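Translate sequence into C-alpha cells.
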Amino acid sequence: METCNEGSNPSLSASQCKVTPHINYVWGFYLSIMFSLIPPILIPVIIFFARIMDVSLGTLRIVMVSRGYKYKAALLGFFEVLIWAFVVAELLKNLNNWVNYVAYAGGFSVGTFVGMYIESKVKVGTIIVRIITQNKREELIESLKEAGFTITSIAAEGGFGPVNIIFTVLKRKRWNEVVSIIEKNDPGAFYSSEDVTYANSSLDLNKLDSDRGATNRLLGLRKGI
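Result follows.
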C-alpha cells in the first residue's frame, strides 16, 4: 500500500494522509472478501454478465456522444467505468482457464448487441428525412402536414427526369410513422435519413414530437436538439 509520509505529497493535508490509506485498505479488503466467497464455477457467469452490462453502457454512450447528448453520455460513462473498476477488473484476476476467456469475449459480443438493441427501442435523438418523388409531391406534402410534420420541398433533376425532394426533421421514434405515410402515398419514392446533432433556434421544435406536453415543449425551446 502506498503511504503518505510527511513531505511525500504536498497536495494532501495531514488528515487526508491518515484517512485515505485507511479507506483504500478497508475497501480493498471488503472486495477481496466478497469475491473470495464466489464459487469458482460462478466466476465465468459473473464475468459474462458483467461484460454485458458495461459494454452495453459503452455502446449507448457512444451513440449518445454521436448525437450530441453530452450529459447523458457522461452519466453512462460513469456507470460503465464503475462496473469495470469494481467488478470486471477484480474478476479478471481469475482468468485462469479458457472458460473465463470465452465468457469475457462472449459478454463483450452480447453486450454490443444488447446496447444496440436497447438504443433501437429507446429511439433517442432527431433525424432529417429526405424523400425523392417524381409525381406524388402534393400527396406526400399534404399527408405529412396532416400528421404534424414540418416540411421543405425543392425541385431537382434526377437521372430519369425532374423530381421533387422533400425534407422533414423529426424525432427518431416517429420514423415508422413517416415510412408508413411514404409507402401509402408513393411506394416508389426513395427516402433516406441521417442524425441531426444541431439546429438553430428558428426550427419549430414543438412539431417534432406530437406527444410532447406543455412542459416538454417549453424545455425543448433550445438550440441543441
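Note: Residues 98-122 form the longest helix (25 residues).
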